[in-house]
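User: We ran a pulldown and think these components assemble together. Before we commit to crystallization trials, I'd like a predicted model of the whole complex to look at. Sequences follow.
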Amino acid sequence: MNFQKIKEQDKKNILNTYNRFDVCIESGKGAVCKDVNGKKYIDFTSGIGVNSLGFCNPEWVKAVSEQAGKLAHISNLYYTIPDNELAKTLCEQTGYSAVFFGNSGAEANEGAIKTARKYSFDKYGAGRDQIITLVNSFHGRTVTTLAATGQDVFHQYFGPFTEGFRYAEANSMESVEKATDKTVCAVMLEFIQGEGGVIPLDEKFVKDLFAFCRERDILVIADEVQTGVGRTGKFLASEHYGVHPDITTLAKGLGGGLPIGAFLVEERLKPVMGYSSHGSTFGGNPIVCAGANVVLRTVCNEKFLREVAAKGEKLKACLLVCEDVVSVTGKGLMLGIQLKKKTAAEVAKACLEKGLLVLTAKDKVRLLPPLTITDDEIKQGLQILWDVLS
Ligand SMILES: *Cc1c(COP(=O)(O)O)cnc(C)c1O
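Assistant: Here's a predicted model for the assembly, 390 residues in total across the polymer chains.
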């Protein structure tokens, strides 16, 4: 089937919710993928921060295929082995006491929201249920996580939205204090706002916010769906700030290409979510967890994480010398490029034509390459970016 035919059929049969790039990707290896016409692209996107080990990592493929040939699914009514290992590794790596597995970032955040509200309900009774989120955040596409998302454009058409969210300006304790009263049970944040334009929170704000919340028994939920699992050069972005949120959510990069979401909780929150308080048909799926175990065996390694940080620094330095680049924000392999003249969409389109996949976030070009990208692949991608930006 040629590309034109694929495109027509897609438009005809799949809901047109995505503004797709004009290309059909068919296969990939490492940080290089190929379209249906055989044209190659360097991948600076890893899906959207999903393929942490690149395309077709041999160990990942082996683990996933072997698990598919052994036990694809059985339901959470039975114990299984892959989720057992995954939970152990996650708790050991992060210092959290327990994890719940779902299938996406939005679901992980829903679980975190439920946990925060029930913690407060159990301890203080009904009515202490408000959650503060930050302006310009992104927390997902379900009716509740849209409400949690601090951007007005997401609060249209689909109402009534879930009640109980209020918004504070990022990096303003004054704004957080103004939004706080006795009905607030949690604050939810991204350490680096991803979809919002790769914008990191200030260190002082984070420190002050954590102290403020601790004093009032307000839980902090960190949405690390995009920043987690090594993306920023630390396993969790919270480590850059030296803080430990009560709940952390993960998704995108955790499965290495298969759908998974997770929320991790502190010891004192473990009893809050007891029997039948939460569940998921597919959560903890053996095939997905077998893949995630390979991701963690690779990423939970000091040397590997240092390399992610170093690759990010190198990319940043090389981009800053481009004439059209004003600034580069972000950490590790999560970078946002602010441009002088060109629009992000123009750059993404031009890169695609020259054989490089990049993302955009608001007015920035966003880079989320696979964590395993090689120096040579970085060099090839940069060459194209330089051509486009000069
Ligand atoms: C992508 C993303 C989500 C939503 O994840 P889905 O898997 O699409 O539901 C939530 N929060 C953040 C920070 C994200 O980047």
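The chain has a mean pLDDT of 98. That may be worth checking against your pulldown data before setting up trials.

User: Thanks, that helps.
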